[in-house]
Task: structure prediction
Amino acid sequence: MEKALVRLARKPAVSVPKDASVLDAIYVMLEQRVGAALMLEDGRAIGVFTERDVMVKLVAAGRDAATTKLADVMTSPVLTIHANADIPEALEVMVDRHIRHLPVVDDEKRVIGMLSMRYLMTDRIDRLQDEARSLENYIGTEGIAGG
Result:
């Protein structure tokens, strides 16, 4: 059975070649509608490039997206989480480290998916709504006095 963390991850994770320009990465991210792309080597994350990197390392630094190599502005090393971790652990890592994207890896540290804070929050909201419906059904069936 697939672990919940892997179920919530985008599979496969969006990646770009390590010789790509920043503009290449931006086009891939726009096309795939994601906020982060990985650079992989043998399936392992060697760098991550995010929307925040566009603002801080490119725009604010006055760099040209077409001529800047992604390898010069990507974040490395990449923080990852093992597929056997649970959702609260992933959420804690992301909140504590102030990140919105977290690659999920297997035992060999190969990337099997990419978590997004959006996916985790959507899952949490769905669970809370299910819990609220269950409580409403219980109260409606049993009444305040418990039947």
Observations:
- The first helix runs from residue 4 to 8.
